[in-house]
């Protein structure tokens, strides 16, 4: 997950929205995808990533439809409040007036028509959940978001020290690309690589952990800088791998299919297509939303093409057994691919800069979700709970996980497979299902949501729910069977 959304919500063009969405989706997951791609085989990987991309696009359209429905409900409630305030007779809410085959609402008081499904007001997913879910559903929503954010923080907390360890401890000779290091190998004298990783993790915690106790604001320019660095790094990696393959010196001979790698690839793919929870901040400021559905489809096609290009060049450029969890590290210890020291260190340290700027933002978001989950109307938290307890329960668990393991592929796979399944499949399908139920008594069956999903039949909602249930059972069974074999 990456940044790139304006903080003030000022309007921007659909093209800018296209770029923002691309930046939002393509993030840390892209760096872990090549290894997962290689482990499952290129034929299976292409089929799975394409299917999961289509599923993610479907649920993205569900969220956009739910956003429009939420805007309509808010307008309707506001209208009811105005009528109660002025004690006026309620005017008709709608008539069968259509513009471009879209039903619009008409009020006598205004003397004109207003499309209540316009996405003008930003309604975050938490607010939509409070509007359309019952208390149990709302709590489950926040728990799912919190688990996902914990996974995000654990991934970030592990990725930065891994990159620092590899740069500090790695052998940067031109033959190092054929060496696979172990955690017990020495780094500095008697200090092992695992010890060095924990040292860097401790430094990371001390430097970035305190931000959890404050509020992350004014990050727009940091996001712009990290987005620029990200695209320089991705472009370099693709071009360098293509050059090596073009020269006929590529070492990769990936299998066509390997079912053993499918569970991890599934989790990585789900994580890599994650954007549903950020759609309200992304879509609402777009100035002209007439073609927002086509814009989202184009974005998914571009992102799918990018993932395939990045992964294909990786698995044919490097041996599958030598691919790092963090793909950038394959360029830091192999002079046959990149023999300019400055650029090798740039790629090696690239995750450090980009992930470090996102960590405080995600931590503050998680802390605020904890507060919302336990919030009671009219209540306030004691100072110690508000300023100490909530930040600590936000920061400590992911750091402990990162101290215990730095297997990024597993962290991304588990986060994507469990919390990612909830956020990307279950929540969007549930939102659109209950949004349709809530709106029908208010606006009638004749009123058409112009932002409704192309997958408007209820079959698709049930299909997503069943697919999510299958995914959870499949991943859980695989983990149990794998542990049993060990």
UniProtKB/TrEMBL annotation:
Keyword list, A-Z: Glycoprotein, Membrane, Transmembrane, Transmembrane helix
Domain Amino acid transporter transmembrane: 17-67, 133-436
Record-annotated membrane-spanning stretches: 12-33, 39-69, 132-151, 196-216, 228-245, 257-274, 295-322, 342-367, 388-408, 414-435, 459-481
Main location: membrane
InterPro entries: AA_transpt_TM
Gene Ontology CC terms: membrane
Subcellular location: Membrane
Plastid recorded as keyword: no
Topology relative to the membrane: Multi-pass membrane protein
Family: Belongs to the TMEM104 family.
Protein name: Transmembrane protein 104
Organism per entry: Labrus bergylta (ballan wrasse)
């Amino acid at each position: 997950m990456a940044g790139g959304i304006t903080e003030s919500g000022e309007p921007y063009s659909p093209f800018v929205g296209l770029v923002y969405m691309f930046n939002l989706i393509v993030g840390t997951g892209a760096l872990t995808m090549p290894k997962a791609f290689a482990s499952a085989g290129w034929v299976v990987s292409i089929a799975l990533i394409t299917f999961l991309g289509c599923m993610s696009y479907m649920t993205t359209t569900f969220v956009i439809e739910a956003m429009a429905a939420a805007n309509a409900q808010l307008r309707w409630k506001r209208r009811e409040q105005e009528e109660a305030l002025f004690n006026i007779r309620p005017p008709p809410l709608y008539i069968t007036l259509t513009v471009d085959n879209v039903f619009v609402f008409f009020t006598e008081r205004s003397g004109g028509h207003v499309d209540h499904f316009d996405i003008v007001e930003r309604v975050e997913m938490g607010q939509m959940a409070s509007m359309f879910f019952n208390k149990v559903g709302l709590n489950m929503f926040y728990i799912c978001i919190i688990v996902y954010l914990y996974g995000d923080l654990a991934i970030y907390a592990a990725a930065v020290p891994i990159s620092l360890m590899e740069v500090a401890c790695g052998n940067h000779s031109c033959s190092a690309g054929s060496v696979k290091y172990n955690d017990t190998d020495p780094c500095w004298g008697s200090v092992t690589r695992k010890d060095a990783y924990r040292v860097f993790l401790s430094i990371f915690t001390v430097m970035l952990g305190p931000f959890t106790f404050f509020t992350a604001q004014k990050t727009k320019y940091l996001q712009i800088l990290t987005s620029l660095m990200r695209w320089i790094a991705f472009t370099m990696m693709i071009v360098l791998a293509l050059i090596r393959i073009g020269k006929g010196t590529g070492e990769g001979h990936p299998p066509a299919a390997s079912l053993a790698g499918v569970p991890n690839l599934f989790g990585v793919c789900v994580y890599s297509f994650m954007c549903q929870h950020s759609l309200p901040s992304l879509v609402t400021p777009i100035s002209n939303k007439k073609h927002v559905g086509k814009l989202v489809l184009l974005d998914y096609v571009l992102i799918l093409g990018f993932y395939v290009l990045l992964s294909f060049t990786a698995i044919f450029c490097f041996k599958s057994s030598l691919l790092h969890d963090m793909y950038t590290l394959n360029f830091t210890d192999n002079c046959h691919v990149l023999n300019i020291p400055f650029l090798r260190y740039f790629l090696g340290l690239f995750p450090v800069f980009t992930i470090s700027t996102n960590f405080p933002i995600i931590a503050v978001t998680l802390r605020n979700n904890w507060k919302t989950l336990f919030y009671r109307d009219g209540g306030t938290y004691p100072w110690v709970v508000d300023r100490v307890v909530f930040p600590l329960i936000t920061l400590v668990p992911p750091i402990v996980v990162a101290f215990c393991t730095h297997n990024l592929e597993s962290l991304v796979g588990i986060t994507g497979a469990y919390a990612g399944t909830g956020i990307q499949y279950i929540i969007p399908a549930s939102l659109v299902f209950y949004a349709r139920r809530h709106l029908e008594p208010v606006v009638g069956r004749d009123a058409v949501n112009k932002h409704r999903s192309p997958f408007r039949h209820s079959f698709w909602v049930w299909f997503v729910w069943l697919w999510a249930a299958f995914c959870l059972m499949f991943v859980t069974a695989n983990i149990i069977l794998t542990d049993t074999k060990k």
